[in-house]
Amino acid sequence: MTYTLTTPLYYVNDKPHLGSAYTTLACDALARFQRLKGEPVVFITGCDEHGQKIQRTAETAGLTPQAHCDGVSEQYRDLWNRWQISHNRLIRTTDPRHRQIVQQFFARVEASGDIVEGRQQGWYCVACEEFKDDPHEAQDPECPIHRRPLEWRDELNLFFRLSRYQEQIETLISQPGFIQPASRRNEVDNFVKQGLRDFSISRVNLPWGIPVPGHEGHTFYVWFDALLGYITALLEESDAADLDTAIARGWPASVHVIGKDILRFHAVYWPAMLLSAGLPLPAKVFGHGFLTREGQKMGKSLGNVLDPADLLERCGRDAVRWYLLRDIPFGEDGDFQQQRFTDLVNNDLANTIGNLLNRTSSMARRWFEERVPPASHATTSNHPLAQAAETARYTTLKALDQLDFRSAAEAALQLAMAANGFLNEQAPWSRMKQEGQEAEVGNDLYAVLEAARITALLMAPLLPDLSSRMLIQLGQPVPESGADAPESSTWVEQLQWGGLCCGAPLPEPSPVMARLELDACL
Ligand code: MSP
I want to staple 3 with a disulfide (CB 3.0 to 4.6 A). Which of 39, 140, 293, 359 is the partner? Predict the structure, then answer.
């Protein structure tokens, strides 16, 4: 079965934000992990381009909405390329095929009797593109997320009969694996328990949207349109715009990875829409936390927004990925702290991992003719580092399966730390000076190089660049995890102890990870 995973489809009202990069990097690590395990993967990201927010932004910029969307979606495309995100699809909801998919889907929902006309009154946040739960009589309410005034709306719209799906949604969200992390379930539970109300799925007087067939003057509500982007995205380039074809290409999704802000849409509205259209439901919705910077919400007014393009330029892919994935428990809120960022990258990557490889490979080359030393007992599974490697392998694989990137990163790092400890205890530099110790030194260096090889492989989904520089330095093949990776992968087998061949040439070492200077990312 295809492993289909998605990021949210990002609004193109502004250039990409560190928050969008965060979700996308995490999904990239997950997509690479699945490919390394040999799963066929469709990794979907994209841009959400319709609705009032986009229309207004374009007007303010003096552009047509389409020209505005073309410009910003290009920035997304360019950024993901620079980050080497391994997505298989980048869907834009202004894609002409998407319009047809939305209309075909709507026809199924309408045929199920789930579309009714109604009057929509309420307080609306254009930035969220969402009606808020504030009471009608509220005076000047504001959006708790955007801190901007809500707008009063009173329109005749088409409604989706969400209320019909109360029981099915309750059953769905009570399934242990559906909403993750489990700590986020309560919030959705409480919302559903209050009783699901029908929601409007069309707008009048909003030209920047997909027209609703058979309902003159109505365009689809941007969320109804956007969620379906996950399905349109499955179409291959040569496919006609046909809902069943798209479904056959990899639906249902294995996981929708999103921020906690949009959990309700994914865990309640979306499954109900799919049920109405008679389509299978995604297996899991993972709502991660929000990033702040030095304890403050990132925002234009504070002038503290971290630009992911800038960060990449100054600090590099490995450093940023490591910090975000290793330091912030995926699922919880996290704070971007410059000092901690620099410290972690320098300690973990430059010192613990980079130096370990560099110095061990230098010793092996100097004393063993530029080759992996001959070894006997170090190649067997009862060597202490073999056991450390087995623990790291087991923990990393299990953690990645659960999107627990932090535990996965820590487990790989632990192995490098164990290898450093072992090296310092054995002190081959002194032992080599003693007579008759060469064979033991060979075994010790072999074990440390082997631990470095397994560390590098375990890091492949998390930090593909650093992982490949390490493997190249060890004279090893680099497993493919990118968008075009072959479906057959031997990565899991390669994680077994003893894979390094004694006597294989060791290339000349050069530092695999540069240190970061504290002010590099300000
Ligand atoms: N267009 C909708 C999603 C439609 S999906 C069918 C949308 N777009 S958005 O551009 O506002 O992106 C929201 C997502 O960006 C969040 O769910 C989260 O994944 C990411 N983030 C935006 N700011 C963030 C932080 N400060 N921290 C972490 N991630 C956040 O909602």
Answer: 39
- CB of 47 shorter than 6 A to ligand 1: no
Q: How far is the CA of 307 from the centre of ligand 1 (A)?
A: 15
Residue 89 has a CB neighbour count (10 Å cut-off) of 22
Per-residue pLDDT tens digits for 329-356: 999 999 999 999 999 999 999 999 999 9
Alpha carbon nearest to ligand 1 atom 15, residue: 20
The 10 Å Cβ neighbour count of residue 477 is 11
* Exposure b/e, 120-151, CB count within 10 A at least 16 = b: bebbbbbbbbbbbebeeeeeebebeeeeeebe
236 burial via Cβ count (<10 Å: 0-12, 13-18, 19+): exposed
User: What is the secondary structure of 271-318 as a DSSP string?
Assistant: HHHHHHTT-PPPS-EEEE--EEETTEE--TTTT-PPPHHHHHHHH-HH
Please give the distance of CA 373 from its chain centroid, rounded to a whole number.
Answer: 40
Bridge partners, 288 (sequence order) = 259
Q: Give the number of the atom of ligand 1 that is nearest the alpha carbon of residue 257.
A: 19
